[in-house]
Design brief:
This protein has 376 residues and is α/β, with parallel strands linked by helices. It has 2 domains: 3-11 and 257-372, Aspartate Aminotransferase, domain 1, CATH 3.90.1150; 15-256, Type I PLP-dependent aspartate aminotransferase-like (Major domain) (Aspartate Aminotransferase, domain 2), CATH 3.40.640.10. Helices cover 43% and strands 13% of the residues. The protein has 14 helices and 12 strands. It has helices spanning 15-26, 37-57, 70-84, 100-111, 129-135, 158-168, 189-192, 230-233, 241-256, 258-279, 303-311, 330-334, 339-343, 356-372; strands spanning 3-4, 64-67, 91-95, 115-119, 140-144, 173-177, 196-200, 211-215, 284-285, 293-297, 315-316, 345-349. Strands 2-8-7-6-5-3-4 form a 7-stranded mixed beta sheet, with helices on both faces. Strands 9-10-12 form a 3-stranded antiparallel beta sheet. Helix 3 (70-84) packs parallel to helix 4. The longest helix is centred in the C-terminal third of the chain and has 22 residues, at 258-279.
Length: 376
């Protein structure tokens, strides 16, 4: 029996999302930009899906632009956001624990002459609001901070950052990579205070290949993709109606069950920590607030060996972000963990489909691995 616990990397597509995608591809296959019946039918589907995702995010449909993924949304928000606010200055604040989609975008800005301040995280991978305020300058044009860290589950208080910016009179735009927080921890774009919010479908049981960027009303970004006039001229390319319809279906379900599913995942996460510490006294874990991400480590054992041991029992976890492709985690280095702890780290990702049987299998298998595998 399979026990999939790598939901921070991607989630299984829920049946409702799959059905919505098939219907869009088979029945509503017209181009939303076409003016004939099939095109108008696809345009209505697109409009309905946009309204559903916007409702789940807590924004107006016109503030939501569909993209191909969270990485595209991050790239667009940072590169175009900085350019849109360049009159404020050429300084950017971010952190040392961002996703590579943000990190590489910041490097591009630096190559173009921008100055980037990368804040160091708290022990859980979150960023302190006081550190953001201390780094703030009169020429800060953009702040980009992940809401939920994708490796540790540390939660940064983006709303508090937004309030601080307002109180200080800063002209900086605020972007948050909310890929790991969307419909996992409660927030609303209307009350969050961020100018730009990146989200992704495949973290909430929609297919890969679809994401979105919230762009606050009144903020005009230069298009990241140019060509046709899709997405009200903000992103060229025929809209991927199948993926978008699936994204909307998944968002509706996740929104309706947010409180219940978050509480359930948090309880399973707490249970996992308690059981593993009781069974493996030397085990380490990062104490973080997100209900669905747990970083643990068996110092002295190798992550790859542990993962192979678990996979042989059809238990799937990861060692860090899937985008690292096996490289050492810059996040765990930044929060100050030692090399043996990092080299023995595993990331456990929960979802609404995670069961008690999944947790039982994981805890028993890690105990077995600890007792039988050679200590490095």
């Amino acid at each position: 029996m399979e026990h999939y616990l790598d939901n921070a990397a991607t989630t299984a597509v829920c049946p409702e999302a799959a059905e919505a995608a098939v219907r869009a591809m088979v029945e509503c296959y017209g181009n939303p930009s076409s003016t004939h019946t099939r095109g108008r039918e696809a345009a209505r589907l697109l409009s309905s899906a946009r309204a559903d995702v916007a409702d789940a995010l807590g924004c107006a449909p016109g503030e939501l632009v569909f993209t191909s993924c969270g990485s595209e949304s991050d790239n667009w928000a940072i590169l175009a956001g900085a350019e849109a606010n360049r009159r404020a200055g050429r300084h950017v604040i971010s952190s040392a624990v961002e996703h590579d989609a943000v990190r590489r975008s910041l490097e591009l800005l630096e190559q173009r002459g921008w100055e980037v301040t990368r804040l160091m995280p708290a022990p859980d991978g979150s960023i302190r609001v006081s550190d953001v305020q201390d780094a703030l300058r009169h020429d800060t044009a953009l702040i980009s901070l992940m809401m939920v860290n994708n490796e540790t589950g540390g939660v940064t208080d983006i709303a508090a950052v937004a309030r601080m910016l307002k109180a200080t009179g800063s002209k900086a735009l605020l972007h948050t990579d909310a890929v790991q927080s969307f419909l996992k921890v409660p927030f609303s774009a209307k009350t969050l205070g961020a100018d730009l919010i990146s989200i992704s479908g495949h973290k909430i049981h929609a297919p890969k290949g679809v994401g979105a960027l919230y762009v606050r009303s009144g903020l005009h970004l230069r298009p990241f993709l140019v060509g046709g006039g899709q997405e009200n001229g903000r992103r060229a390319g025929t809209e991927a109606t199948g993926q978008i319809a699936a994204f909307a279906a998944a968002a509706r379900i996740a929104k309706d069950g947010l409180a219940e599913n978050s509480a359930r995942m948090a309880a399973l996460k707490t249970q996992t920590v308690e059981r593993l510490h009781a069974a493996i006294p030397e085990l380490r874990h990062v104490d973080a607030a997100a209900p669905h991400i747990l970083s643990v480590s068996l110092p002295g054992w190798r992550s790859e060996v542990l993962m192979n041991f678990l996979e042989a029992r059809e238990i799937y976890v990861s060692k860090s972000s899937a985008c690292k492709k096996g490289g050492r985690s810059h996040v765990l280095e930044a929060i100050g963990l030692s090399a043996p702890v990092i080299d023995g780290a595993l990331r456990i990702g929960l979802s609404r489909y995670t069961t008690q049987e999944d947790i039982d299998a994981l805890c028993l298998a890690l105990k077995e691995a600890h007792d039988t595998l050679a200590h490095r």
